[in-house]
């Protein structure tokens, strides 16, 4: 997986005939375009804020339905020099902290 994903609106401007809607409301899928222009589809698990940063939690939609075995990726939303959102993978301590925060949010939601 590439480190950065462009905002889909920016990618649509570059390749409008190749791209569909960013988020399909019915199935929770989101399409992101990587640095090489390849579209990758993810299941949007949620979005959240932590320490003033916005994050997305996404998973491979072809993974098993069992949430315990699903691999979740954390992407940080970062504005590029043109003011467009990009989605950057996070690593190490930041990834652990963001993922643990996401799990806390999921647990809190399940309790309600």
Description:
This protein has helices spanning 8-14, 92-111; strands spanning 4-6, 23-24, 29-34, 39-50, 53-59, 72-79, 85-89. The protein is α+β, with helices and mostly antiparallel strands. The protein has one domain (4-111). The chain has a six-stranded antiparallel barrel with strand order 1-3-4-5-6-7. Strand 6 (72-79) and strand 7 form a beta hairpin. The model is unreliable at 1-26 (pLDDT under 50).
Radius of gyration, taken over Cα atoms and rounded to an integer in Å = 14 Å
Q: Indicate how many domains the architecture comprises.
A: 1
Which strand order does the major sheet show? Answer: 1-3-4-5-6-7
Beta-strand percent range: 35-45%
- What is the element string, with H for helices and E for strands? EHEEEEEEH
Q: Segments where pLDDT lies below 50 for 5+ residues?
A: 1-26
- Total helical segments: 2
Question: Mean of residue pLDDT?
Answer: 76
What's the N-to-C terminus distance? 35 Å
**Helix-strand category:** alpha+beta
The largest β sheet comes out as: 6 strands, antiparallel, barrel
Helix content: 10-25%
* Large-scale geometry: globular
Total E-strand runs? 7
